[in-house]
Design goal:
Length: 286
């Protein structure tokens, strides 16, 4: 993807980071028609699983911040914006769940999740170079932006639509920062497209990691204890959640974000779009 408008885009990133970030108090929870939303089991699992994974963000942020410790611009932004916003996503989703499904013991279920999640999260492998890790970060933010946009489009409940849209915008903003840092570091490291494509594919294939499966196991255990660990029920719920994302995602946007670090001339974009779509299908369409 060419980036002819790189300068103005950088300026818009600066503008965005200076405007005050939204607050959980901005969400009109009191307007939710709780009686109508409560029966939406799919929404319960989507919101609660996402709240778990987002709230667990600080388990791996320290690794990443340390990796860029010699680059104050990056490590400051990671510490003062990115990490804070990811944790706010978790808190806002948690508040939504608590408002609509107050009987769900979020903290107890989350502690149980964390016990398992923290075991494999600590050993998250970073890419071998700082520019390639930025490619991996772009993939992760593409995945989260895709998820929340799909959640916003799928939701008929206005407060959830508003919350998911705010989070999706944050994830796109995170992507823009990581992409800008990538471009700076790429020059220094002199990376070839082959290296970048390698990092893109690696991280995309890893995206269907244990994160959401782990969250779902623990959410189900406390939501519906008699089906805890039941593989049939787990499969049913995850199929339901995946369908929501699949039918509501904007594939064109996702592919564009995913391929952008390759900075391909237009003729190659069409050729590479095919394998990228295949990779995406593995991630989102199952
Ligand atoms: Fe997030
Ligand atoms: Fe993010």
């Amino acid at each position: 993807m060419t980036t002819p408008n790189a300068h103005s885009e950088d300026e818009s990133i600066v503008e965005q980071s200076q405007t005050p970030h939204w607050r959980i108090e901005d969400l009109a929870f009191s307007t939710i028609d709780v009686a109508a939303v409560r029966s939406d089991e799919n929404l319960f699992y989507l919101a609660t699983c996402a709240s778990f994974v987002e709230s667990g963000s600080d388990l791996y942020t320290q690794n990443l911040i340390a990796y860029y410790g010699d680059d104050p611009e990056i490590s400051d932004w990671l510490t003062h914006h990115w990490e804070v916003e990811e944790l706010q996503h978790g808190n806002a989703l948690r508040a939504y769940v608590a408002h609509v499904w107050p009987e769900f013991e979020w903290q107890i279920a989350y502690n149980d999740f964390l016990e398992e999640y923290s075991r494999y999260c600590k050993v998250e492998l970073l890419e071998p170079s700082k520019a390639l890790e930025m490619v991996a970060r772009c993939v992760v933010e593409t995945g989260t932006a895709t998820f929340y946009q799909a959640l916003a489009r799928s939701s008929t409940e206005p407060v959830m639509r508003n919350l998911a849209t705010r989070i999706a915008n944050d994830e796109v903003n995170h992507y823009k920062h990581f992409f800008r840092y990538f471009r700076r570091l790429r020059q220094k490291e002199g990376l070839s497209r082959r290296h970048i494509f390698g990092a893109l594919s690696r991280r995309t294939l890893e995206m269907k990691t244990e994160d959401s499966a782990c969250a779902l196991r623990h959410v189900l255990k406390f939501r519906d204890p008699k089906h805890a660990g039941d593989p049939v029920r787990l499969k049913e719920i995850s199929a339901m959640m995946n369908t929501t994302v699949r039918v509501n995602l904007r594939a064109d946007m996702t592919i564009k974000m995913m391929m952008r670090p390759l900075d391909l001339p237009p003729v190659l974009q069409t050729i590479v779009a095919y394998p990228v779509t295949q990779i995406m299908n593995k991630v989102f369409l199952r």
